[in-house]
Write a structure and sequence with these properties.
Layout (H helix, E strand, L loop, with lengths): L1 H31 L10 H14 L6 H17 L6 E4 L1 H4 L1 H11 L5 E4 L2 H10 L4 E5 L4 H8 L6 E6 L10 E5 L9 E9 L14 E4 L9 E8 L3 H11 L6 E9 L4
Parallel strand pairs: 1-2, 1-3
Antiparallel strand pairs: 3-5, 4-5, 6-8, 6-9, 7-8
Helix pairs in contact: 2-3, 6-7
Bound molecules: prephenic acid.
The site of prephenic acid (PRE) has 12 residues, from helix 1, helix 2 and helix 3.
């Protein structure tokens, strides 16, 4: 039995080396295309790859094992293309489970940089085109920092974990959009406003509305709306009509591929 395990390990090693050689070729092509400059991360490709792997998965293989092996491979494949730093909130801001989520998503090779405050985190990705940040889905600090920053090219590019797991933490990845957000993508919109009424009535069916520390923050009420891309235009029209009422502000935070369910 152990002889067979050794043979399997040798075969896996060959296949993984072949995968890294292929990624190196992808890197050469990417660096030849000026438009592709910046972070090597391609979230749309990553989620479609994870979706395909979940379909191929054999029942003997536990989902968390498959997910972590490939997140590690993709994380390593990203780092051999360029040093992509991952900015994240310090554990005091986001908790230890969030740190695990970040490591599980980006792999062992990713250099992490922790930030004590949200504006510093947003400034770091604004200043470094190759970098990304990972932020908790439910927090309002990063939303406010993103709304306050003038960096229009930085926004939400992914939802993590990319394969839904009953995990203790979830978040969004911030960076510069590098691959086409198409079918199966969602749009994240922030609604901020002093005395604005609950905006649920303004939204088309299928929109998910999450109050973010509703009413409690010093900046007034804040909601995050997640929309299927097919609904985006209609919803934005409806929301824009109300913009200014009671100080309601509407801002698209970004687009991300829907995680694998
Ligand atoms: O397809 C690419 O563009 C790659 O760089 C390869 C790869 C992968 O390992 O499969 C790595 C990073 C990207 O985010 C997407 C996929």
């Amino acid at each position: 039995m152990r002889v067979r395990i050794d043979e399997i390990d040798a075969a896996l090693m060959e296949l993984m080396a072949e995968r890294f050689r292929m990624v190196d070729e992808v890197r050469t092509i990417k660096s030849a295309q000026a438009a592709q400059a910046g972070s090597p991360m391609r979230p749309v490709r990553e989620v479609s790859l994870m979706r395909r792997l979940m379909a191929l998965r054999r029942p003997e293989l536990p989902v968390p094992v498959v997910v972590r092996i490939w997140r590690e491979l993709i994380g390593g494949a990203t780092q051999i293309q360029a040093e992509m730093r991952v900015h994240m909130p310090a554990t005091a801001l986001a908790g230890a489970a969030f740190r695990d989520l970040a490591r599980d998503t980006f792999g062992t090779m990713a250099p992490f940089m922790e930030h004590e405050d949200w504006s510093g985190l947003v400034a770091a990705i604004s200043d470094h085109a190759d970098d990304v940040a990972v932020v908790p889905a439910s927090g309002r600090g990063w939303v406010e920092a993103l709304l306050a920053a003038a960096a229009d090219d930085v926004g939400v590019i992914a939802r993590v974990p990319m394969v839904a797991e009953p995990s203790a933490a979830d978040g969004f990845v911030l960076g510069r959009a590098s691959d086409e957000a198409g079918d199966g993508c969602r749009t994240l919109i922030a609604l901020a406003g002093g005395a604005a009424p609950d905006p649920a009535g303004l939204l088309p069916g299928g929109a998910e509305l999450a109050p973010v520390a509703d009413g409690a923050g010093k900046g007034g009420r804040l909601w995050l709306v997640s929309l299927d891309s097919a609904l985006e235009e209609r919803a934005l029209d409806a929301l824009k009509e109300r913009e200014g009422d009671d100080g309601l502000a509407v801002r698209v935070l970004g687009r991300y591929p829907s995680p694998v369910e």
